[in-house]
Design the sequence.
């Protein structure tokens, strides 16, 4: 350590000793006092305790507000904002997920800063670094692009600040690129494929020829691979895999190759605007008339933006609002979201909200912002509520084990309202979908 | 230059870097931003040498930034290389090597073609690192987990981690980078790079291998870029693929233009402006993504009105403030007169120098431009020590003939022998090094440089040969340079104007400098293309005196239209007409030759 | 992925792409040829033309009006840009010209981003031209076929302008030697202004015509710019026929490479450009002269 850190540590020890006594211990003795909560005699780590000494704590959020994933990023942001609002006000819905919450987290108001990541890891890292060093963020979040998620994973581990991942579909995020300081709530390539493959085989039969459209980065490659692995056993073969760059403006070359490939199904792993464009162009090139489309990793707003092309299309998703019939918390969430934003939430917002709520719960349970304690609380693997029933976080890789929802696009004539895009086909429980903990090479790092 | 002035820049930089961490936080600048500014500044030093000093505008520097960064990051993350310093060095060297290879292709063209090629190269590198090489570069994930450096000092180890803790390491790198760069621009190579920017044609014609120097500048820029890329990986703990994108190259160009090209510190200033404005506009004014628009507008305005960027603007303000009393230095109407001719400057002794006998022999020299025959079957012989004149009506092909002699233009037919050597088809640079050079009809000077600098560059070619990589030598320490320059100044009568920029010279003075440039390379055979063009009668007289004095110990061929002056100067005259030799003779013979009169006047007399 | 069906579809696809590139590159090349200015804002102009057309479409619902609107708007933008900025740069070094057009391109992109946000905008093709046509071996979107036809007409119009009118003759003379044209007493600066406007209009026209194919985002111009460079280098700077030829060749290179591996399509373009630079430095149809 440099001389700097040492003298700071000494100073803090003094402060603790002469300071205002011991803070409330974790089981909520005096939650109304905005007192700094000290884990006894721990050296400072990351932004602790500096970031949580005041009456508020700072959250760094980076989402794409421009670029290919802008629409989904804005939606994710809304989820975060709603969660923060609810946590700060001690809303009932939050209390259902994090019962110890009263107002704020450990009594501290949540403040946040938003930066545009443009789905570029570089921009996200720069912004979050700023949030950490200047605003002393106690937690950073955001994603939408798995590349960003992986980069922020590493940043979090280096800076010793918790990273609650936003949307990220790649297996690598809690696979080979997992970190002790990172946590992911949503479904991902492996679970999506494991959930949807049986449904597809049942629907379309065995021994089918498949054309894949894959965006050229970690998310795309891992999802395509998972799909291939899950359908191999039923004799499904890949006749072509058209890999396109993120943000490709024109899919004509790829689609012509696909149109002439003789495939029975088109599995389109593209996401965000790429998904919209590639599906629209697939229609134009007559591909959708030749083969069936499947979207193994559903995209928020895809049905709306492709204007009817999702009819009859199977997809796997984290959340669809019509499950509210089964899950009262979902119903509450839908109502609150719609009240604030005038449309029914998609899974990006849901993921943002829930992962935030879970984090708030973990911190409340831990009784401190001290990162290693919070991490260990997650790693207890307790069953906790979510908007899709009970879930838990797996200690080996910090992945939330949660159900995957298979949906099928409704025919226009069957839609009961303008947002009633999908039928729920099946809600597949998460446990059976997960890979073995070390299957993807996850090695969590150190606590400190 | 007194030594205190000489190292002023280095001292100020060191000072600035030392006090920055104490001053900047009060200005609202985060440590991270300061660190980024340093990295961009370092990236920009190399680019400034390439663009500001050599005049090569590359929009593809990101290729080397990314290469250096990826190599260093790969070594440190996936390959388990132990030393951060070592990895940085290897990254830098790799980038330099790659820069060399790329430069071999890119530098075949200049101007906009060069710019377009660099754009394309940048894109290719981005693609390659993204796709085929994704296993090494992490594809679009980049390479996360880059460690920070530590310095083991025996009694303690310094860990440079993040924020202000990392600052000293980056500041040290930047300081070393600046010191080296300052040495380079003060070296002969630096002077030649400036010459290439000002007038590449003339730089080559006075004997410099400009391609070699351009490649040197390109490699230097790539090396700096590679080091900066490695530092980026350390700064972010993550090496992003964005280091390769066109935006990165574009941002570098803009920052340098904003700060001021050709100053070495411009990129640092530009980066400071760019990054702090970015922060300020986004955070304080809540402009969101509109910050780039504001920066774009600022950039356009700067390019339009502040041609030398902010540093240039500051310099101008300084000059305005300090020299307010002095009147604007205007180019005078009349040139200062030449003092009594100094002792003549002998031609340099070269191997194969011929003192007597034929020094130049052209046989059957022909030049065709498509259907037009500019020179046809010219035989032309000059003896060593001779003073030859060439005259002829307009369109006779005199200038074309000279161009062939200096090998600026290859002949369509025929041969040229110089000092017994066949020089047909050689290049202008090589021929100049052999001792044959020309002063131009239209001034080809290095306009933004001073008279002294112009002559220095010419002399350097002679004293150092076509190409030498003495990057760290100081120009002043070249033996014989000072004397040569002073001597030439004396000869052409510009000693009093030695430190005036060429743009401020009177026309006559420029013509004298034009001759001086050729002289400074100490040619054995000096060609003068219309040296008296545009001069006043008094200037003509003086120039003729000058030419007579420099003719001693040297062979000269002069083209001119001023018959009177020419007849006074030379011993033997060749007359060209319509691309052919019409006749030859002494001045008296030519004066009275009816064929010559007819050629000029079109046969008025019967 | 080679089948004859695929091959012919890709060749046709290349024609569509190539026609578009040809049009855009013609604009760039005549500007450079005549004014000596490499317009780095050309891609941004392509993008702005698309957005201008979108605005007209939004207001009127007519695709034809949108195309006309987009093209005319860019004609005005080009003229204004030349009058306000470019004309002061003719005497300045090439680098300054590159810098200022580069800066203007950034400003253009960001202004559009500010007004329209980064979410993509779609302009649907006219009802008459939407849908799929069977080309025998393959199905192809009708509109893309129409694009080839539309662009061909535009190129013909440009050809007519350059080779059959007095103005065109002056422009072509100016490409060869603008000083000479000036000495002949012709107002070169007026010619420059018109040429810049026409080049800008060509880019803008291409932008709106292409909008139904790839949808509009503020960043759509950047990729186009780089491809345009490649086309201009391959075809020969300053040569209109070179731009057309170069465009078609580029389009075919991209599509035929896509048949094998789409990821390498654009890299092949750059490889082709490098090859041309090495073998025929002035491009296939270019002439020695401007550097």
Sequence:
């Amino acid at each position: 350590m440099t001389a700097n850190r040492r003298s700071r540590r000494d100073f803090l020890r003094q402060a603790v000793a002469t300071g205002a006594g011991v803070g409330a211990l974790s089981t909520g003795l005096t939650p109304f006092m905005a007192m700094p909560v000290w884990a006894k005699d721990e050296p400072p780590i990351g932004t602790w305790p500096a970031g949580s000494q005041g009456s508020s704590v700072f959250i760094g959020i980076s989402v794409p507000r421009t670029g290919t994933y802008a629409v989904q990023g804005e939606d994710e942001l809304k989820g975060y904002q709603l969660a923060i609002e609810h946590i700060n006000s001690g809303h009932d819905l939050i209390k259902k997920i994090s019962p110890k919450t009263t107002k704020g987290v450990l009594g501290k108001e949540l403040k946040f800063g938003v930066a545009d990541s443009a789905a570029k890891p570089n921009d996200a890292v720069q912004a979050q670094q700023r949030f950490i060093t200047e605003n002393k963020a106690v937690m950073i979040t955001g994603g939408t692009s798995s590349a960003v998620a992986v980069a922020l994973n590493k940043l979090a581990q280096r800076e010793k600040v918790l990273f609650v991942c936003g949307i990220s579909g790649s297996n690598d995020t809690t696979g080979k690129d997992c970190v002790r300081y990172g946590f992911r709530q949503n479904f991902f390539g492996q679970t999506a494929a494991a959930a949807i493959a049986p449904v597809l085989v049942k629907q379309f039969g065995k021994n089918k020829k498949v054309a894949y459209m894959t965006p050229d980065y970690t998310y795309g490659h891992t999802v395509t691979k998972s799909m291939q692995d899950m359908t191999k056993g039923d004799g499904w073969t890949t006749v072509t895999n058209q890999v396109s760059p993120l943000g490709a403006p024109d899919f004509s070359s790829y689609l012509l190759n696909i149109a002439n490939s003789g495939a029975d199904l088109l599995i389109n792993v593209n996401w965000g605007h790429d998904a919209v464009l590639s599906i629209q162009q697939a229609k134009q090139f007559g591909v959708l008339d030749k083969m069936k489309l499947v979207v193994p990793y559903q995209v928020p707003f895809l049905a709306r933006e492709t204007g009817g092309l999702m009819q009859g299309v199977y997809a796997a998703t984290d959340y669809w609002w019509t499950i509210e019939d089964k899950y009262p918390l979902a119903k509450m969430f839908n109502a609150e979201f719609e009240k604030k934003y005038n449309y029914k939430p998609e899974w990006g917002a849901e993921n943002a909200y829930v992962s935030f709520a879970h984090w708030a719960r973990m911190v409340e349970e831990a009784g401190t912002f001290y990162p290693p304690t919070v991490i260990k609380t997650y790693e207890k693997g307790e069953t906790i509520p979510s908007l899709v029933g009970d879930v838990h976080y797996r200690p080996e890789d910090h992945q939330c084990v949660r159900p995957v929802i298979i949906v099928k696009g409704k025919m226009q004539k069957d839609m009961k309202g303008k947002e009633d895009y999908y039928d729920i086909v099946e809600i597949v429980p998460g446990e059976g979908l997960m890979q073995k903990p070390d299957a993807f090479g996850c090695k969590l790092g150190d606590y400190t | 230059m007194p030594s205190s002035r000489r190292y002023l820049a280095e001292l100020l930089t060191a000072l600035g870097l030392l006090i920055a961490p104490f001053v900047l936080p009060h200005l609202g600048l985060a440590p991270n931003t300061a660190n980024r500014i340093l990295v961009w500044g370092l990236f920009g030093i190399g680019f400034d040498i390439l663009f500001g000093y050599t005049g090569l505008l590359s929009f593809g520097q990101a290729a080397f930034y990314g290469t250096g960064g990826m190599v260093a990051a790969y070594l440190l993350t996936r390959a388990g290389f132990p030393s951060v310093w070592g990895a940085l060095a290897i990254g830098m060297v790799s980038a330099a090597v790659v820069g060399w290879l790329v430069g071999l292709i890119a530098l075949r063209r200049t101007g906009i073609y060069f710019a377009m090629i660099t754009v394309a190269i940048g894109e290719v590198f981005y693609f390659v690192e993204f796709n085929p090489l994704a296993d090494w570069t992490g594809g679009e994930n980049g390479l996360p987990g880059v460690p920070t450096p530590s310095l083991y000092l025996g009694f303690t180890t310094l860990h440079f981690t993040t924020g202000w803790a990392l600052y000293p390491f980056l500041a040290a790198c930047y300081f070393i980078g600046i010191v080296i760069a300052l040495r380079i621009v003060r070296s002969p190579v630096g002077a030649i790079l400036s010459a290439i920017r000002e007038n590449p044609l003339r730089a080559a014609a006075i004997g410099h291998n400009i391609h070699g120097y351009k490649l040197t500048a390109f490699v230097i820029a790539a090396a700096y870029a590679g080091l900066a890329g490695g530092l980026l990986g350390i700064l972010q703990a993550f090496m992003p693929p964005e280091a390769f994108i066109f935006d990165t190259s574009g941002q570098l160009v803009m920052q340098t233009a904003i700060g001021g090209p050709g100053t070495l510190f411009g990129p640092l200033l530009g980066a400071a402006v760019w990054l702090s404005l970015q922060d300020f506009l986004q955070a304080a004014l809540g402009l969101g993504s509109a910050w780039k628009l504001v920066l774009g507008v600022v950039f356009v305005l700067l390019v339009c009105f502040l041609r030398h960027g902010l540093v240039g603007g500051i310099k101008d303000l300084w000059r305005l403030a300090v020299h307010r009393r002095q009147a604007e230095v205007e180019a005078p109407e009349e040139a200062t007169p030449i003092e009594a001719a100094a002792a003549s400057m002998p031609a340099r002794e070269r191997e194969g120098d011929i003192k007597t006998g034929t020094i130049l022999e052209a046989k059957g020299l022909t030049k065709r431009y498509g259907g037009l025959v500019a020179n046809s079957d010219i035989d032309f012989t000059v003896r060593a020590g001779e003073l030859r004149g060439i005259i002829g009506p307009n369109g006779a092909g005199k200038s074309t003939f000279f161009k062939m002699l200096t090998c600026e233009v290859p002949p369509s037919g025929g041969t040229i022998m110089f000092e017994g050597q066949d020089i047909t088809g050689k290049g202008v640079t090589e021929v100049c090094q052999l001792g044959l050079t020309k002063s131009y009809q239209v001034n080809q000077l290095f306009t933004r440089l001073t008279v002294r600098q112009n002559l220095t560059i010419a002399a350097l070619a002679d004293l150092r040969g076509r190409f030498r990589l003495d990057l760290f030598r100081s120009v002043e320490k070249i033996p014989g340079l000072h004397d040569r320059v002073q001597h030439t100044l004396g000869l052409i009568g510009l000693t009093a104007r030695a430190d005036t920029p060429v743009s401020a010279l009177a026309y006559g003075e420029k013509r004298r400098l034009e001759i001086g440039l050729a002289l400074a390379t100490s040619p054995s055979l000096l060609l003068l293309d219309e040296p008296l063009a545009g001069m006043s009668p008094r200037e003509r007289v003086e120039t003729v005196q000058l030419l007579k004095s420099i003719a001693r110990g040297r062979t000269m061929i002069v083209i001119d239209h001023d018959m009177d002056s020419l007849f006074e100067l030379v011993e033997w005259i060749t007359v060209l007409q319509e691309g052919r030799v019409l006749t030859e003779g002494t001045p008296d013979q030519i004066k009275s030759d009816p064929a010559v009169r007819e050629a000029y006047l079109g046969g008025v007399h019967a | 992925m080679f089948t004859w069906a695929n091959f012919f579809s890709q060749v046709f696809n290349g024609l569509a792409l190539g026609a578009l590139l040809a049009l855009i590159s013609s604009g760039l090349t005549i500007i450079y040829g005549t004014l000596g200015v490499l317009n780095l804002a050309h891609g941004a102009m392509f993008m702005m033309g698309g957005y201008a057309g979108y605005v007209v479409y939004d207001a009127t619902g007519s695709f034809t009006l949108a195309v006309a609107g987009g093209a005319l708007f860019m004609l005005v933008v080009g003229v204004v840009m030349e009058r306000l900025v470019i004309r002061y740069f003719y005497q300045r070094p090439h680098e300054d010209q590159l810098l200022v057009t580069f800066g203007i391109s950034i400003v253009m992109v960001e202004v559009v981003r500010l007004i329209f946000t980064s979410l993509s905008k779609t302009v649907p093709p006219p009802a008459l031209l939407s849908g799929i046509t069977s080309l025998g071996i393959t199905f192809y979107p009708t509109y893309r076929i129409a694009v080839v036809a539309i662009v061909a007409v535009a190129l013909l119009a440009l050809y007519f302008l350059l080779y059959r009118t007095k103005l065109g003759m002056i422009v072509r003379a100016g490409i060869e030697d603008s000083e000479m044209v000036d000495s002949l007493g012709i107002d070169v600066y007026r010619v420059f202004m018109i040429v810049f406007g026409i080049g800008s209009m060509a880019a803008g026209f291409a932008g709106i015509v292409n909008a139904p194919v790839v949808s509009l985002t503020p960043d759509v111009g950047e990729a186009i710019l780089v491809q345009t460079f490649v086309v201009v280098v391959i075809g020969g700077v300053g040569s209109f026929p070179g731009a057309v030829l170069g465009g078609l060749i580029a389009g075919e290179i991209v599509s035929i490479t896509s048949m094998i591996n789409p990821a390498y399509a654009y890299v092949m373009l750059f490889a082709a450009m490098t090859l041309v630079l090495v073998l025929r430095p002035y491009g296939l149809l270019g002439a020695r002269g401007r550097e």
Notes: Chain C has one domain: 4-279. Chain C has a mean pLDDT of 86.
